[in-house]
């Protein structure tokens, strides 16, 4: 059973998905290389050459995706200089990039469950306690919410952007 579409949204044929937030998100992180760069940033990668090497993409693709993610606000450039070297930029996560962690981790956990025959290659745990960490849908009160319990309604404070 799907989510419960409430009020005027219940008739799917009477409205469109114009201004969909998922479309906006995919315009930023909808490529394999973008998601893999974010994965590497969560693992601590900051240097341009390390992103390209660890992901297995060309430097041209790495440069394009790092620029895209930086312009979108998920990464920020920070200058560094190795001893005896010239000043270069490294890439660090912004708050916006850190906020995407549950989405990326959720995709990995979904693949661990449904696509990995031998079990997950990595375990995600609370570093301090060792307790497994899981991504899930919860209400503001912390209660789990299943798809069938999810309601979708119009946000009364949303305003259509000016053209």
What order do the helices and strands follow?
EHHHHEEHHE
Count of domain modules = 1
Q: What class would the helix/strand composition place it in?
A: alpha+beta
Give the helix level as a range of percent.
Answer: 25-40%
Shape: globular
Q: Helix count?
A: 6
Query: Which regions are unreliable across 5 or more consecutive residues at pLDDT < 50?
Result: none
Return the CATH topology.
Arc Repressor Mutant, subunit A
Major beta-sheet overview = 2 strands, parallel
CATH superfamily: Winged helix-like DNA-binding domain superfamily/Winged helix DNA-binding domain
**Whole-number average pLDDT?**
94
Strand residue percentage = 5-15%
Could you give the order of strands across the largest sheet? Answer: 1-4
Distance between the termini: 36 Å
The assigned CATH architecture is Orthogonal Bundle
Q: How much is the radius of gyration in Å? A: 20 Å
According to CATH, what is the class? Mainly Alpha
Number of strands: 4
InterPro entries: HTH_HxlR (IPR002577), WH-like_DNA-bd_sf (IPR036388), WH_DNA-bd_sf (IPR036390)
Pfam families: HxlR
Keywords: DNA-binding, Transcription, Transcription regulation
Protein name: Winged helix-turn-helix transcriptional regulator
